[in-house]
Amino acid sequence: MTKNTHESDVAFIQALAELLNKNELTELAVKREYGEDDSLEVRVVKQATVIAAPAVTHVAPAAGPAPAAAAPAAAAAAEDPAQHPGAVTSPMVGTAYLAPEPGATAFVAVGQQVSEGQTLLIIEAMKTMNHIPAPRAGTVRRVLVADGTPVEYGAPLMIVE
């Protein structure tokens, strides 16, 4: 920190924390210079919480009981969407948006066919809108995030098969 303690530093750090929350930031770093050998460097970091919206899927009832060998594999895929082979994961920390602007139609919907490179959603990071493309052609099976929710690096966003 500094050689001398400054009473205003505590208020300054609290103000940074409030600024972090007010502007929905996850990290803020500042360096204050008081003199030649006296400075304060502060890094305030907020752990973002990833909230995955429950995916709505309509499945027709099976004609008969499922094979016993398929049940554990299906249960494991349902429990952790990140392990699904068709999972599209977040390449960065940010806020996920399913449409190009508020009130607009979403880029994709469940059941829609997508081509490789087609925009699935946007992740805003540091006021930059990053288009997330489909890694392969296929059908959108599940949307795992809600519009406007924070996402972490590697978090599953969608399932495209």
From TrEMBL:
The keyword Ligase applies. Pfam families: Biotin_lipoyl (PF00364). This protein is a component of the acetyl coenzyme A carboxylase complex; first, biotin carboxylase catalyzes the carboxylation of the carrier protein and then the transcarboxylase transfers the carboxyl group to form malonyl-CoA. Keywords: Biotin, Fatty acid biosynthesis, Fatty acid metabolism, Ligase, Lipid biosynthesis, Lipid metabolism. This is Biotin carboxyl carrier protein of acetyl-CoA carboxylase. The keyword Lipid metabolism applies. Pathway: Lipid metabolism; fatty acid biosynthesis. InterPro entries: AcCoA_biotinCC, Biotin_BS, Biotin_Carboxyl_Carrier/Decarb, Biotin_lipoyl, Single_hybrid_motif. Residues 85-161 form the Lipoyl-binding domain. One of its GO terms (molecular function) is acetyl-CoA carboxylase activity. Coiled coil: none annotated. The gene is accB.
